[in-house]
Amino acid sequence: MVQDLSKPWPGRRRVAAIDIGTNSIHLLVAEVDLELRSFSVVLAEKATTRLGERDPVSGELSADAIERAFRTLRHDRDLALSHGVEQIVTAATSAVREAPNGRDFLVALQEKLDLDVDLVSGPEEARLIYLGVLSGMTLGDQPHLILDIGGGSTELVLADGGDARVLTSTRIGAVRLQREFCRQDPLPPAQQSFLKAYIQGSLDPAVAQARAALKPGERPKMVATSGTAMALAALAAAEDERPPLKLQGYRLGKARIDQLLARLLQMGPEQRKALTAINERRAEIIVPGALILQTAMEMLQVQELVVCDRALREGLIVDWMLRNQLLGDRFSFQSTIRERTVIHLAQSFGVDRSRADRVAAFALSLYDQTRGLLHEDGGEGRQLLWAAAQLHTCGKSINIAAYHKHTWYLIRHGELLGYSEMEHLMVAAIARYHRRGLPKKRHESWLVIEGRDQRRCVAAMGLLLRLAAALDRRPAEVIERITVAADRDAGPKEPPTGFTISLEESAELAADPQGDLSLECWSLLSCHAVVQEACGLELRVLGA
Question: How many domains are contained in the chain?
Answer without folding.
Answer: 3
